[in-house]
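Let us work through a complete example step by step.
Step 1: write down the sequence.
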Amino acid sequence: MRTRITARHFKAPESLRAHVMKRVDKLGKVYDGITHASVVLDRAPSSIDDHLAEISINVYRRQLTARNGAATHEEAIDRCAESLRRQILRYKSKLRGEHLRR
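Step 2: predict the structure and record it as tokens.
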């Protein structure tokens, strides 16, 4: 899986980039059909949750996206990754036809 990390208006430290890679790799363990991941980190100047993160992943015929804000970038990334994990599990169940068996 290819991962692209973009930091808008600041330079992301290596520890933050490592955290992003760790969380995205965990998503790859949930579903191995992820072909590409794009992570955008930003700061909103006038809000309490001013550290923003957006993660988009490409799977077969679909793009799944999560966007979240928090007090730190790490926390925002964790929230996005958890949201994407739920989306991936829902997507996998639809691929297998489990939603039709209920």
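Step 3: interpret the result. The mean pLDDT is 92.
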